[in-house]
Amino acid sequence: MPLPLSAQLSGDPACSRAGTPLGALSTPGVHEFYALSGADAVSTHGFALGVMLSGRPGAGLVWVVHDLTGMETGRPHGAGLQEMGIQPQDLLLVRARNIATLLGVGEDALRTPGVEAVLLSAWGEDRALNLTAGRRLGLLARTGNKRLFLSRAAAAPRASPAESRWSIQSAASTPLMAGAPGRPAFSATLLRHRRGAPLRTWTMEWDREARSFVEPAPVSGRLAALAAQRPVAGPTGLRRTG
C-alpha cells in the first residue's frame, strides 16, 4: 500500500526507508521545477506553492515573482491564492524587475529569521541563473535549514547543484459531483535527485482544505493508480541532466 502523498511530502522517516522521491522535497537546499511548456507555467508555480505550503501551517513563506513571469502568465491574484488555501498572513509576495533582483531577494529572504521557505518564479533563460548563483542559494538554504524552490518557465532543464530537479505539467482533474470542476491536478516527473532516488512520474491533486497533495479521486469505484512506473524519457524526450 503506497504512502499517502501528504506523508511523502512531509519528510516522514518511513518515506526515506521506502525510497519515495517526493520526500526529498523536505530536504533543506534548492529544488527546481521546470514547466514542460510555456502553457504549463501556471501549473508549475502552483505545484511549487503547494509543495511550499504542504504540512507547514503558520510557517514564514516568501514568494518572489519575476516581472516577466507576470507579463506572460498573469500576476498572482488574491482570490486565486485563497483557492489554493493561502491566507494573506501566510505569504509575503515580492515583485522583482529582473533575474538579478529575483536572486538578490531570494538570498535576503533565506537570511531572514522566521522565513521557512522561499519560492522564486522566473521566466526565460538568463545568465544570472548559473552554477554560481545556485551554489550560493544552496549554501544559504542548507546553512539556515531552509528550502528554496526555483520555478522556471520557458527554460530548458540544465545541470545545477540543486537537491532535486522536476518537470511539471498540468493534468486532467477528476470532476466532482454534479460535474463541478475538480481539484487542481499536476503531473510531476523527477529528473534528478542528488541521493539517487528513482526517476519517475506522479499524478497528484491539490487538496486546499488539507493543504496537501492527494492521490487522484476514485473513478468508477476504483482508485486511479499513480503513474509511478512511467520512465523519465518519454515522448517529450526529457531526460536526466547534471
Primary descriptors:
single chain; 242 residues; alpha/beta; Rossmann fold; 9-stranded mixed sheet; 7 helices; 26% strand; disordered C terminus
Can you walk me through this structure?
The structure is a single chain. Strand 7 and strand 8 (201-207) form a beta hairpin. Helix 6 (99-111) packs parallel to helix 7. This protein has seven helices and nine strands. The chain has a single domain, classed as P-loop containing nucleotide triphosphate hydrolases (Rossmann fold, 3-Layer(aba) Sandwich), CATH 3.40.50.300. It is 26% helix and 26% strand.
Rounded to the nearest angstrom, the radius of gyration is 17 Å
Q: How many domain modules? A: 1
What are the segments in which pLDDT stays under 50 over at least 5 consecutive residues?
A: 6-21, 220-231, 234-241
Q: What's the shape?
A: globular
| Strand portion | 25-35%
Characterize the main sheet: 9 strands, mixed
Total helical elements: 7
**CATH class category label:** Alpha Beta
Widest sheet, order of strands: 3-2-4-5-1-6-7-8-9
Compute the number of strand runs. 9
Specify the CATH architecture.
Answer: 3-Layer(aba) Sandwich
Structural class: alpha/beta
| Average residue pLDDT | 83
CATH overall fold name: Rossmann fold
What level of helicity do the residues show?
A: 25-40%
Written as H for each helix and E for each strand, in order along the chain, the element string is HHEHEHHEHEHEEEEE
- Cα end-to-end separation: 32 Å
CATH superfamily: P-loop containing nucleotide triphosphate hydrolases
